[in-house]
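Design request, tokens follow.
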């Protein structure tokens, strides 16, 4: 999409797509990542144009990161209070989530656990959040959180690592995949 916008504005001397998703972010001053491996060729090694692209992409990535941080904060509140209606908004219908013992859960299963009290959090303390913007539609978030509570009647407490894939669609940002692992 960025390439098409640059071409339409007459900033790019190339008419074929030039950006290739590969997962790496391109930040001002950073080496060119896989996500941008064909950018130099397509732009004719034009440093001025590359600088404009870096700025536009950096701003887009920063804006998306802010949106995901806000979604994560909403998610933490919804999880800790078992707010099923908010969880319903934040979780995609096609969710696949691997729990701490490796079992797969769907959205319906997760919402049911919150609705029935099968999952209850007594403490929920976020410690760290790392975000990788893959594209304007997909983001990976990794959260380190101290949790205590009960799961299916069994008490737990400790540090956990959540990995979540967020997808932007018609309903906004939603979680489509993830996992949680106890940190030892």
């Amino acid at each position: 999409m960025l390439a098409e916008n640059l071409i339409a504005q007459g900033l790019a001397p190339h008419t074929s797509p030039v950006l290739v998703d590969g997962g790496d972010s391109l930040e001002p001053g950073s080496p060119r990542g896989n996500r941008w491996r064909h950018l130099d060729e397509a732009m004719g090694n034009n440093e001025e144009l590359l600088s404009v692209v870096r700025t536009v992409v950096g701003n887009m990535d920063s804006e998306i990161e802010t949106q995901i941080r806000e979604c994560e904060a909403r998610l933490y509140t919804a999880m800790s209070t078992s707010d099923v209606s908010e969880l319903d908004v934040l979780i995609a219908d096609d969710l696949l989530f691997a729990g701490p013992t490796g079992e797969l859960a769907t959205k319906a299963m997760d919402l049911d656990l919150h609705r029935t009290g099968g999952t209850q959090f007594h403490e929920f303390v976020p410690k760290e959040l790392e975000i990788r913007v893959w594209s304007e539609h997909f983001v990976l978030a990794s959260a380190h959180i101290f949790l205590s509570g009960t799961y299916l009647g069994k008490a737990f407490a400790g540090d956990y690592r959540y990995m979540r894939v967020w997808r932007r669609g018609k309903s906004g940002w939603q979680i489509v995949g993830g996992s949680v692992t106890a940190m030892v």
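Comment from the thread starter after seeing the answer: thanks! The longest strand covers residues 154-169.
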